[in-house]
Design a protein that fits this description.
Elements (H helix, E strand, L loop, with lengths): L1 H73 L5 H18 L3 E8 L5 E3 L20 H10 L3 E2 L3 E2 L5 E11 L6 E11 H8 L3 H4 L2 E8 L5 E6 L8 E7 L2 E9 L6 H39 L8 E2 H8 L14 E8 L2 H8 L1 H17 L8 E4 L4 E7 L3 H16 L13 E6 L9 H17 L5 E2 L1
Parallel strand pairs: 11-13, 15-16
Antiparallel strand pairs: 1-2, 1-6, 3-5, 4-5, 5-6, 7-8, 7-10, 9-10, 12-14, 12-15, 13-14
Helix pairs in contact: 1-2, 1-6, 8-9
């Protein structure tokens, strides 16, 4: 019974706490998930914009390869037309792309004969792009074989430093007379290229970055990266001619604001605790009110329950059925023997002491947590309700009460001895446990005990 009450007491507050915490946490998590998705979408949009800028820069530069090839083809293999426009191409490229071309190389048969500008590029004259043993020539040979522009990843330059280049094959003639003439290559200074891309502006915009491509061994090769590696980045893949590059982006402050999330979850926790505390207060108020109602129906003299308590809290007055169908009450009706004589001989004050002493014995034999209770049924009559007891235990209780009441003594009235008569009705089934019927049967047994000489019980 006690455990059942505890479960009932804590169930609703526990459910309030769980529901409030889970619902509000769920809403916040959904909000955070949506915010995370939006942050990723913004990061991908930023990466896509940056990717477009990078690709456009390369397109502007390597479009000059095609312009030079067209001049050579239209001049039937002559390089004189290139001499006339080379300087203009260098200047226009720097103007429109913001990137200075390191050199333009014209290589009939794959061997460099002309380079623009010649200054600082003299070492490139005679360089054989068709030599597979030289770094950066793999792409030149690939361009020749595929007859298309091939862009190199960063490589070491003959004249020192790092560069990137676009290799475009030139074919003269048409049909069966069509033959390989050579290569037109444009080479960029790798470091100047990176500076022109201004990738560090991404950090100022709130993103750590990493620009990379997959090497031949399958491992990432870093082209450029912020000082701090992006954590759990989004990746945008993009193509520059034959190259496949990747741009990773992640917010400088992370995808989630840990401090903000901690504060929000603490606020949710505190709110859930507050709602639970309010619920507990409501339950406590109801329990206190119920207790006060019960106290209002306690007998002032004995602290036993009154008959009104039975009618209000235990029994349906119309049917006599117990409100709590789980109760299995066995009933004892107790009457103090010759009580009227005590009152007449010793006075009402002593009579009250006798009633209180007898009631205390009955209360001491109750297990209130089990639902047991004592009711002052009349002046010197009591009803004791014992819940869910065995027949053997029920009879032991009656014997014990009989003996304990016999042992009551008053030091100031040593000659006073108290006895009781008791009638018992043991619980058999719900159908036979109607309150009024139990009272009737117990009363008959009580009458039988009195008829047999009192100071005994009948069951």
């Amino acid at each position: 019974m006690k455990k059942s009450l505890a479960k009932k007491y804590w169930f609703r507050p526990a459910m309030v706490f769980i529901l409030v915490f889970l619902v509000m946490s769920g809403i916040y998590i959904l909000f955070m998930q949506r915010a995370f998705e939006q942050s990723q979408e913004r990061a991908l949009a930023t990466a896509n914009s940056e990717m477009s800028t990078i690709r456009d820069r390369f397109d502007v530069i390597f479009a000059r390869d095609y312009a030079i090839r067209n001049i050579i083809v239209s001049d039937n293999g002559s390089m004189e037309g290139v001499d006339a426009v080379a300087e203009a191409i260098l200047q226009e490229t720097a103007q429109y792309s913001g990137i200075s071309i390191k050199n333009i190389a014209i290589a009939p048969g794959g061997v460099v004969e002309k380079v623009y500008p010649l200054k600082d590029n003299e070492g490139l004259i005679g360089f054989d792009f068709m030599d597979p043993s030289r770094e950066g020539n793999t792409e030149a040979i690939e361009a020749y074989e595929k007859n298309e522009l091939v862009v190199t990843n960063p490589f070491s330059l003959v004249q020192g430093g790092m560069g990137m280049g676009g290799r475009l094959p030139v074919y003269i003639g048409s049909g069966d007379a069509r033959e390989f003439w050579g290569l037109v290559t444009i080479t960029l200074d790798y470091n100047i290229l990176l500076e022109s891309l201004k990738l560090d502006d991404l950090v100022k915009s709130g993103y750590y970055y990493r620009l990379w491509y997959e090497g031949e061994d399958g491992e990432p090769v870093i082209i450029a990266a912020s000082d701090t590696e992006p954590s759990k980045p989004v990746t945008q893949n993009f193509a520059i001619s034959n190259l496949n590059w990747n741009l990773d982006l992640a917010p400088v402050n992370g995808w989630y604001n840990i401090m903000e999330s901690t504060v929000v979850f603490l606020a949710i926790l505190l709110f859930a605790i507050l709602m639970t505390a309010i619920q507990i207060d409501k339950i406590n108020i109801r329990l206190v009110n119920a207790k006060l109602e019960k106290l209002a129906h306690l007998d002032a003299l004995t602290s036993c329950y009154s008959r009104q308590y039975v009618n209000m809290f235990l029994v349906n007055q119309r049917t006599g059925q117990w409100y709590d169908s789980n109760l299995k009450y066995s009933m004892i009706m107790i009457d103090i023997d010759y009580f009227k004589q005590f009152n007449d001989t010793y006075g009402h004050e002593i009579g009250d002491r006798v009633i209180m002493a007898g009631a205390q014995v009955l209360l001491d034999n109750c297990q209130s947590f089990n639902g047991d209770c004592v009711i002052r049924y009349g002046g010197d009559e009591f009803i004791m309700l014992l819940n869910n007891v065995t027949h053997e235990r029920f009879e032991q209780k009656m014997k014990g009460i009989l003996e304990q009441i016999r042992d009551i003594h008053f030091e100031d009235i040593p000659e006073l001895h108290i006895t009781v008569s008791m009638g018992g009705d043991y619980y058999i089934s719900p159908e036979k446990s109607v309150y009024y019927e139990q009272v009737h049967r117990a009363d008959e047994k009580l009458y039988q005990a009195k008829e047999q000489g009192r100071n005994q019980y009948c069951l």
